Amino acid sequence: MAYQHLRGTGVALVTPFHKNGSVDFIALESLITHVIKGGVDFLVALGTTAETSTLSFEEKKEILAAVIRIADGQLPVVCGIGGNNTEEVLRQLKEFDLQGVDAILSVTPYYNKPTQEGLYQHYKAFAAATNKDIILYNVPGRTGCNILPETVIRLANDFKNIVGIKEASGNIIQCTELIHHKPENFVVLSGDDNLALAHMAIGMDGIISVAANWFTKEITEIINLAIVGKFDKARKVFYRILPAIDLLFADGNPAGIKCVLKHMGIGEQYLRLPLVPVSDATAKKITQFLNV
User: Which of 15, 87, 99, 280 has the most crowded Cβ, counting Cβ within 10 A?
Assistant: First the structure.
């Protein structure tokens, strides 16, 4: 099956920071070691969960290089490169060292609210600028921009290196339409941990998960069971961890997952403004769940 390396469970890695705001590469290595041992299928660097919008370009390059080095060929690496200024995105694409990168995850342009034709032209320019596989990323709750199924399918049919999408619209009808009409080998990945099982039931190919930073084995098990149609077993695992998944996002992402990782001994809770750690009330609930 084409693009098998982009199916299953991908983990959206956080960026650990020191108290002084610098990147904690030792904690990053601990995290990557943890998720690889947990059985994930691929790593995603520089996504939303990585607080990428607060990183300098030099930091992005250093983090990507570190992820590739630590992964050491054990798993495919997906790199996030996107933005709302097409020319700037293309410039970054040229300046990144993408050796060792298996695919690029590229979010829809945010804030300026392009039309569907604008989205098509943006990704057309992106596809022409690289020979790397491209995964579109649709997350309208963050971007204010929703790429519709017909636009996704048009792009998939027109550009051979546009191979998939991370779909986080939360709209199950839209997801169903996309899966029903997409090209056969086009990969559709869930971008919502709390909808992952429903997304797999309608035919998605896997997930890019925040919760897999914590529930690495559980998320991987859910997805693997769903892939082979064992939904009864998958549901038992899913509902066991669903309350904790909800806690992860109660005060925003990645504040929740960083709180958990601190308890696990992987980094601290430091985030870059405007993001802040979870509230004391949420931290208490997370601690209670961890101690059960």
Answer: 15
Distances (CA, A) of 279 to 90, 269, 292: 38, 12, 20
Cα distance between residue 227 and residue 130, in whole Å: 31
Closest CA to 137 of 261, 47, 222, 246: 47
Q: What residues are annotated to the active site? A: 137, 166
Domains in the chain: boundaries: 4-230
How many whole angstroms separate alpha carbon 248 and alpha carbon 257?
A: 6
Q: In this predicted model, what pLDDT tens digit does every residue of 76-125 receive, in sequence order?
A: 999 999 999 999 999 999 999 999 999 999 999 999 999 999 999 999 99
Average of per-residue pLDDT values in the chain? 96
Complete DSSP assignment for 10-38:
EEE----B-TTS-B-HHHHHHHHHHHHHT
Q: What pTM does this model have?
A: 0.95
Indicate whether 291 pLDDT > 90.
Answer: no
Residue 1: what pLDDT?
40
Q: Which two tokens stand for residue 56?
A: 């300098």
